[in-house]
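Recall the central idea of this unit: under ordinary conditions, the amino acid sequence of a chain determines the structure it adopts. In this exercise we apply that idea directly, starting from the sequence alone.
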Amino acid sequence: MPRLQCLIARYTIGWITVIWLAATGWLLLMTTVFVPDSEAIQNLRDVLKFPGNLEDLKTLTETLLEFKKFHPLYVYILFCTSYLYKQTFAIPGSVFLNILSGALYGTVKGTCLSSLLTATGASMCYFLSLLSGTDFILNTWPEKMSHLRAQVDNNQERLPYFLLSLRLVPVSPNWFINATSPILGIPIKIFAVTAFIGLMPYNFVCVKAGSVLSELTSVNDLLNFQMVCNLMLVAGVASLPGFLNKKLQKMS
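Accordingly, the structure predicted from this sequence is:
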C-alpha cells in the first residue's frame, strides 16, 4: 500500500509539472514569439511582466493602452492568459491585474471580465487541487483546514450564502478557499457561482481604481476603512437568507 501511494504521488506530481510547464510555456510564447510587430512601441517585450508595484503597473498600463490601438485582440488574449495563470496557480498579485482591467476596458466591461476570469481561474485551481493537493494541503495547514472544515460542516444548509460571505469579506485568503474547496466536498457549481458573485464587489473596487491609476500611491488606498465596512455589510446581507432559513427549519 505505501508503495502504491508513492507511485500515485509521483504520477500526480508529474501531471502537475506538465500542466505548469505548458501554461508557463504558453505565457512565455505570448510575451516573446507571438508579440506582433509595431512601429509605435519598440520596448514592449521589456515591460511585459507581472507588475510587482504601482510604478510597474503604471508603466505597463501606458504601454498596453498604446499597443491596444494597433493590436486589441493580442492585448485581450494576453490579459486573459495572465489573469488565468495567476488564479490557477494561486500566485498573489491579481489586484494589479484588476486595476489594469479597469484601465484597459473601463469600469463595466473591466468588472465583468475580471469577475469572469476570477471564477474561471478559481475553478481551474479547484480542479488542480482536486488532482494533486489533498495531502499537501492537509499536512501544511492542518489547523486552518480543521477550522474551515468545521465552518463548512456547520453551514451545510446555507452553504451558498456562507461561501458568498467568505468571498465578500476576505477573512480567509481566496487562494486558500480555492485550493481547499474540493477537499471539503464543496460542489464545483456552487463554488464557481459564489466566486463569480462574491468577488464582484472587490473586483469592482479595483477595476474602478484603474480609471484613476495615476492618483493611486498605494494598493492600501483601495481598501480603506469605509470600503471594508461596506463589504462587511454586503456579506451580512448575503448571509441573512441562509441564517433565516436555518432558524425556520429549527422552528418547524
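The radius of gyration is 20 Å.
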